[in-house]
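Ex. 9. Protein: Lipocalin/cytosolic fatty-acid binding domain-containing protein.
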Amino acid sequence: MAAKKEMGVVKGLDLKRYMGRWYEIASFPSFFQPKNGVNTRATYTLKDDGTVNVLNETWSDGKRSSIGGTAYKADPSSDEAKLKVKFYVPPFLPIFPVTGDYWVLFIDEDYQYALIGQPSRKYLWILSRKTHIDDEIYNQLVEKAKEEGYDVSKLHKTPQSDPPPEGEGPEDKKGLWWIKSIFGK
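Predicted structure tokens for Lipocalin/cytosolic fatty-acid binding domain-containing protein:
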């Protein structure tokens, strides 16, 4: 079996322009997100030290689940958009640090939609500044993921309300979604 080629990663990502709210348009289902999650979004805030506050939110059974973390450049001397993201789990009792790769594989020139992956190709996200994107753009991003060696048949579109939920809403304080996700529920 031939080795997969190194993925192409955005160079010269403008972190300030990247900050703000992004909506998950599609992703590979993962154990760390609720299986029935809707209105999934990420909010990024640049800190003075150059790291990024990360707030991931999703709604499941009418309740908001969230987890906060920190992103930082994997290699500060590189101009490649290869970031590391660190979360503490479980989110309701943050004890264990978990670090993952967050590679920006594509971003449009207006910073309106992006393709995010990581080297094992087990995780993939299509993100947008809006809750929905045109089919043509979606298909271009899927094609880009395929070119980078992803099995795009695993992509699952994330239901998004229009308009999206405002504020935080009722929160899942017990972290039950996280426990259920460990058991594949």
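Check your answer against this statement. Residues 15-165 form a domain with the Lipocalin fold (CATH 2.40.128.20).
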